[in-house]
Amino acid sequence: MVWIHGGFLQFGNGNEPGISPTAKLAKKMNMVFVSMNYRLYTLGFMALDILTDDILTRFQRKLWLMGSVMCPPVGQRKHQKLWWRS
C-alpha cells in the first residue's frame, strides 16, 4: 500500500495518528506499507531549482506561489463545498 497524505499542501504528514495506516493493519492485511511526505505550503516549493532558473519570469513565479495562497483557508464553508463537488 502506498499512502499519500492529504492536507491541501498545507498540513499533515505520512504518519498521522488515527488517519494513516498502521503497522498493525499492514501485518493483518499481509502488505507492505509505504508512506511519503512532500513539501508543504507556499514556501515549501521555494527550494526547487526550477524556481531559481532564469527560464521562469517573475510573473510565472508569482503564479506558482499564488496557487495555494488564493485558495480559501481550510475549514471555510466555501472551501468544503468546492472540495466535495470536485
Describe the structure.
This is Carboxylesterase type B domain-containing protein. By secondary structure, the chain is mainly alpha-helical. 33% of the residues lie in helices and 7% in strands. The protein has helices spanning 23-29, 58-69, 77-85; strands at residues 2-4, 34-36. It has a two-stranded parallel sheet. The longest helix has 12 residues, at 58-69. The two termini are 25 Å apart. Residues 78-86 have low confidence and may be disordered.
Q: Give the strand tally.
A: 2
Q: Could you tell me how far the N terminus lies from the C terminus, measured between alpha carbons in angstroms?
A: 25 Å
| Strand order of the biggest β-sheet | 1-2
Mind describing the biggest β-sheet? 2 strands, parallel
Q: How much is the radius of gyration in Å?
A: 17 Å
Give the amount of beta strand, in percent.
5-15%
**Spans of at least 5 consecutive residues with low confidence:** 78-86
Q: Helix count?
A: 3
Oligomeric state as shown: single chain
Organism: Caerostris extrusa
Family: Belongs to the type-B carboxylesterase/lipase family.
Keywords: Glycoprotein, Hydrolase, Serine esterase
Pfam family, one: COesterase
